[in-house]
Each structure stands twice: as C-alpha cells, then as structure tokens.
Design a protein that fits this description.
The complex is a heterodimer.
Chain A (H helix, E strand, L loop, with lengths): L6 E4 L13 H13 L5 E3 L11 H15 L5 E4 L5 H14 L3 E5 L8 H13 L5 E5 L11 H10 L3 E6 L4 H14 L4 E4 L14 E4 L6 H12 L3 H19 L4 H9 L16 H13 L2 H4 L5
Parallel strand pairs in A: 1-8, 2-3, 3-4, 4-5, 5-6, 6-7, 7-8
Chain B lengths: L7 E3 L13 H13 L4 E4 L11 H15 L5 E4 L5 H14 L3 E5 L8 H13 L5 E5 L11 H10 L3 E6 L4 H14 L4 E4 L4 H6 L2 E6 L6 H12 L7 H16 L4 H8 L15 H13 L12
Parallel strand pairs in B: 1-2, 1-8, 2-3, 3-4, 4-5, 5-6, 6-7, 7-8
Classes of the chains: A alpha/beta, B alpha/beta.
Chain lengths: 304, 304
C-alpha cells in the first residue's frame, strides 16, 4: 500500500454538456491532458469538480472513467465527501471496487460536529476500506471547523492508512500545527497545499499541491514546485506571485471562472451547474486579457 | 526616505510590581536582556507589552525610558495604536519627539470603520510624523477589521514614510497580495513577520521579524531569523517547528503565558495587569513542566 504523494497533483474540473449533463468524453480528454502535462496524481471530484452538485450515481460514473483512463499511469484518488455521511461511505466502497488508489474526505458538512464527531467519522471511513485515506482541512469554508494537531495525531495513531492531508487554511500557524505533528509520527505523510501555495509550505515539509490552475497553466505550476524543491527562493517567489494572481482571478466564482479560462485556453469543458454561475462571454474575455497580461496564453499549451 | 529595515525586532513585555505599577527598575533589566540577546531593534509597548493596559501617559513614559536606556545601541520602534485616530496620531508625534526610530500602528481598537475610514485612520497617524511608519495587521486580535490591498496601495500613494506591513494574519494569500502589489509601486516596501512564523512569511518576501518569544528563547529565534535571511528556508524547518511548539505551549497557558514562560526561564517579571488573569500556581506548574520537556530550550539563557 505504500502510496507516496508529491509534486503537482491535479484535481480536474467536471466537464458538462450545454444541458448540464455529464460530458464523460471530454472528461477523458481532460484526464489525459493532465497526465500528459506532468500531473503526479489525479484526485476527483474536489469542490472545484462541483462534487456537491453531482448525484451519487454521476460521481460513480465519473470515478470509473477516471480510473479507466488514467490506467495506472499515476495514482487516482476519489473524493468521497457528500452531504450525508452514508453516501460518503458508499462512495468510498465504490472507489475501492473501481480500483482507485486512495480516497480523500473533508470534515463533514453543515452539522459542525465536535472534534469527537470528526474523529469518529474518519475512523469509520478509514476502517471501512483497504485504501489509503487523505483528509481535507478547509477551515474557512466550513465555519472554522478544522483539524488540530491533536486530532491529526490521534487519527495517525489509529489509522495506518491515513497518509496525507489536503491543507487549505493557507495559514502558517494552522499548517504547522498539523505538519509538525504528522511528519514527526509519519515522515512520509503528505501535507498537500489545497491550491498552489507552494513557496510558503514546501520548506516546512509540504509534499506538493492539488492544483487549482493546472488545467490553465500546467507548466507554471510545475516550474514553481521545482523551484521550491530546489530552494531557489527568489524564483519561487516570483512564480508564486504569478500563481497567486491567478488564484485571485479564479477563486472569484470558483470554479466557473476556471472553466471560463479553459475556454480561452482552447479546452472548453462546458457550463457550471447552478447554484454556481457559468462564466459569461464578458467574464471569459476578462480572464483572457488577464492570461495574456500574465504571459500564460503565450507560454502554456493551447487546446487538448 | 532612506530605507530603515528593522531586522530582528524584540517586543519586550512590560513588568509590573505586585501593586500593578510599572516596575521601571525591572524594565531596564528587560531591555538589557534583549540587547544582550540578539535584538537588532526593539518595538514597544506592543500587545506583548500590554500596551492596551497602559495609560497614554504610561506609554509615553515607557518609551522615553526605553530610548534613554538604549542610548542609540539599536533603533526603538514605538507602538502608538489606539481607538481614536487623533489620540494615536498625538502618541505618534510624541514618539518622534522622544527619539523613536519608527512607529507602528494597528487598525483601531473596538471600532470597525468602513475601508475609507480605516485608510483615513492610518493616513492621519502616518502624516503626524516624518519617521518610518509600519502598519501592523493582526485581524484575529483586532475584531476582524480587514486591511485590503487597495488600502495599502492608497497609503503608499499618500504617505512617503509608509514603510511596510507587519503581518500577524499568517495568511499566505494576504501577504502575497500585499507585497507583490506594493513592490510594483514602491520597490523598497517591506513585509515584516509579526510572529515567529517566519519561514512562510520569508518565502513570500518578509525580511524582518517581530518576536515576543525572544524573551523566552532568544537563541532559537535568532537561529530561525538568521537562516531565513539567507533564504535557505528548508534549513529553517526544525527551528520553525520548535518555535511553533513553544508558541502553542505559551498560547495554551493563556494571557499570563508569556510572563509565566519568562519566569520559568529565571526571568520573573510579575503578572499581567487586569483584566488579564494571572497564570495561577496550577497553570504555572503545567507551563513550566511543558517548557522543561522542550529540548529546544536547553541551550537558552536562564536568568537575566
């Protein structure tokens, strides 16, 4: 089971047809694009993949395609978080049956469970499968609900398959509270930045990132990671500033702006399901102008 | 204005007698300790120095004593924050007359003014002096009043002496946005790490460090700072993790934690003023035991 995650990992968006139905053919192209442009792992469907706007049946169908198309070239993790914990359990079972390499799950939605409730949830989820488990910490999106160092320690001690954390606080103190505990107990534990905030976390033992902008500018993401690992601080800073501007551009109406940017880059993936908006033509033009100004349009792959 | 880079800035506590008066004799000892133990500048009275529990007259007296005691060996930065803009501006003017090398101010206490008035607050304070002016951003301590990139850019436009932002938000995106935007219009604009979480801040551009824990572990803080200034951030990971551990121990102990930790290092300096609670015998015992178990503190100086 040794699955070590590092580098620039991609969490693809979910392609939809104009009538908002699943576009599995484009999903295949997108997965292949990520593998060809240097992704070290695929993880789907993060919130960027509109996970909560897909039915459980749709999520299973996409997951099967992901495993089939990637075909062992790089590891595939399936994000199993759903509103109902029972659905998450079902998605985890399905991920294992499908042949995924790992599952990933955020702290439960809506209920603001206690620390014990979160602990019990991850233990139940992690012991229900024989796959590695990655947890997902996102305090700003879940009313402050977050992993502490102590909770991380307990889960590492309880679950041999707890191998990593998608860390999306983007905060020095919060990152270190988890990382210093986790890396001391499990040196291969993968602390994965939720988007490409690599310069602030690679020196602290960060393993890489789940990319936000990877479908737009895979080269830039990989250059940043390489600069961080090589300790080229000035270059890393310069690239990080650029990616932070992109994050500001895309996090506005995420992921519809990202899908809008993909149109500009010649990789259209359709609309975004309500209640999220779909990037208008004007928004696409604005994103296009920004990508031009940042030199992305000129230096990154166009089309599939 | 010639660039004043504060470097490693120690932010001393304010010692009180059992009657809760400022213990001026002990304050001299505190200052001498910091000067002997690596301070490149002092900033006082910061929140670690219980500024908010000191009267205006006490804050002025404390600054005058510090300048007099330091006698130019290092620059002294005066903290002038208040609720009322005019009060803070008057304190800033006094600081300049008293010989402070720079001033630092936070967003106003208690009020949550709209962005235009936050800007006005900062402009009036900065315009009251001709010495360098730093803005301290600590949203968690300050009721969540936000400092946006727009405000920072307008401050740059309006104040020649606005030298930089001291960050205690620990927020990667905030730091990156501020510094990358500011550098485009003022290349010598500074980002300063407002806490010992220097690795991530340094990686995105911070060059100075405000530290309260140097009253407890000056050597460790110095080691972290020195490595960060060589920009070999990966080499700073151990010192960063040790300081994160120390910070959490002190934080868990509550308001009296910093002074309790100094007492445990043989540098008793009284209890905090009300409404902050003293540590109490039980709290002190726990704190001292936790510090005693911290291997990273073994080489640190004991006593004054």
């Amino acid at each position: 089971m040794p699955l070590v995650l590092k580098g620039v990992m991609q969490s693809p968006v979910t392609p939809l047809k104009e009538d908002f139905s699943p576009d599995l053919a484009t999903f295949e192209k997108l997965l292949d694009f990520h593998v060809r442009t240097g992704a070290t792992a695929i993880s789907w469907p993060h919130h960027k993949g509109e996970s909560l706007n897909l039915t459980i049946a749709e999520r299973k169908a996409f997951a099967e395609v992901a495993v089939k198309v990637v075909a062992g070239r790089i590891p595939v993790s399936i994000h199993v978080s759903a509103l109902a914990v029972e659905d998450s359990m079902e998605l985890a079972r399905h991920a294992q049956e499908t042949g995924a390499d790992a599952i990933i799950a955020i702290t439960p939605y809506f209920w603001n469970p206690s620390i014990e409730g979160i602990y019990d949830y991850f233990v139940r989820l992690g012991t229900s499968i024989d796959l590695p488990l990655i947890a997902y910490n996102s305090p700003s999106y879940l009313s402050g609900l977050e992993f502490t160092g102590e909770l991380t320690r307990r889960l590492i001690e309880r679950l041999p398959n707890f191998i990593g954390m998608k860390e999306a606080s983007f905060n020095s103190e919060k990152f270190l509270e988890i990382s210093r505990v986790a890396l001391a107990l499990r040196p291969d534990f993968a602390m994965i930045a939720g988007v490409e905030f690599l310069a602030p976390c690679v020196p602290l033992g960060g393993a890489g990132s789940y990319s936000s902008a990877g479908a737009i500018c895979p080269n830039l993401c990989i250059q940043l990671y390489d600069a961080c690992v090589a300790g080229e601080s000035s270059r890393a800073r310069e690239l990080q500033f650029k990616l932070a501007r992109l994050w500001d551009l895309f996090r506005d109406q995420y992921p519809s702006s990202l899908k809008g940017g993909m149109v500009v880059m010649g990789r259209p993936v359709g609309p975004t399901r309500p209640p999220l908006p779909t990037a208008t033509k004007e928004r696409q033009a604005y994103i296009g102008a920004q990508l031009e100004e940042l030199g992305i349009a000129q230096t990154e792959p166009h089309g599939w | 204005m010639s660039t004043f880079v504060p470097g490693l800035v120690h932010t001393p506590i304010t010692p009180f007698t059992p009657e809760l008066k400022i213990d001026f004799g002990l304050f001299e000892k505190v200052i001498e300790f910091h000067l002997r133990n690596g301070a490149e500048a002092l900033a006082l009275p910061m929140h670690a120095g219980e500024s908010v529990s000191l009267s205006d007259a006490e804050q002025r007296t404390l600054l005058e004593l510090a300048v007099n005691q330091v006698k130019g060996r290092v620059p002294v930065i005066a903290h002038v924050s208040d609720s009322g803009t005019a009060i803070a501006a008057a304190r800033a003017r006094h600081a300049e007359q008293a010989g402070a090398a720079a001033i630092v101010a936070t967003t106003p206490y208690y009020w949550t003014p709209p962005p235009a008035m936050v800007l006005e607050h900062f402009v009036q304070i900065g315009a009251a002096v001709s010495i360098p002016y730093f803005v301290h951003y600590a949203p968690d301590e300050m009721g969540g009043t936000k400092l946006g990139t727009d405000t920072v850019l307008k401050l740059i436009e309006r104040l020649g002496n606005f030298a930089g932002v001291v960050d205690s938000s620990l927020d990667w995106q905030f730091m990156i946005n501020i510094v990358s935007s500011a550098w485009r219009v003022r290349p010598d604009f500074q980002l300063l790490s407002g806490t010992e979480y220097m690795v991530s801040a340094g990686a995105v551009g911070a060059t100075s460090l405000f530290s309260s824990l140097c009253g407890v572990a000056p050597q460790l803080v110095r080691e972290l700072y020195d490595i960060c200034r060589t920009e070999k951030y990966q080499d700073a990971r151990r010192a960063q993790e040790d300081l994160a551990a120390l910070r959490q121990i002190v934080k868990r102990a509550g308001a009296g934690g910093l002074k309790g930790a100094m007492r445990a290092m043989g540098r008793a300096c009284g209890e905090p003023r009300p409404p902050l609670q003293p540590l109490g015998a039980g709290g002190y015992k726990t704190l001292a035991a936790e510090l005693g178990a911290l291997a990273a503190l073994r080489a640190e100086p004991r006593g004054w």
